[in-house]
Design goal:
- 11% of the residues lie in helices and 54% in strands.
- The chain is mainly beta.
- Strands 1-2-3-4-5-6-7-8 form an eight-stranded antiparallel β-barrel.
- The longest helix has 9 residues, at 2-10.
Length: 119
């Protein structure tokens, strides 16, 4: 269950109009959700220019760090993270991405997530 929560958490990311190409340079940096999920004290997702992603989570007094990769294809953001030897894979649609705000959607779950850039 924790793995599913982590995947859900890490996808709190960017946005743009339907099928619009996203400027990947705007994605690079550290992001945190506008609203933390229940049971999570801190969450930071960092995207690097070399398509690597790091997810740092603080929950129930524990600090956890997971690493993986991401691929931006048009407005689709695919993230793969290794969680204790198991690869977790999720794709979300970016509906908005600016220098300080990102919004993503999961079309299957009809779920929107908003992020703000860590300064």
């Amino acid at each position: 269950m924790f793995c599913h929560m982590l995947i859900g958490l890490m996808m709190l990311v960017p946005g743009a109009a339907a099928d619009e190409k996203i400027d990947g340079k705007l994605l690079v940096g550290k992001w945190e959700p506008a609203k933390l999920p229940d049971g999570v004290d801190k969450l930071v997702v960092e995207y690097t220019k070399d398509n690597k992603v790091t997810v740092e989570v603080e929950t129930q007094g524990m600090k956890l760090k997971f690493e993986g990769t991401y691929k931006l294809d048009g407005d689709k953001l695919n993230v793969k993270v290794d969680v204790n030897g198991n690869e977790q894979d999720q794709t979300r649609k970016i509906t908005k991405l600016t220098t300080d705000e990102m919004v993503t959607n999961d079309d299957e779950k009809k779920e929107e997530r908003k992020y703000k850039k860590v300064k």
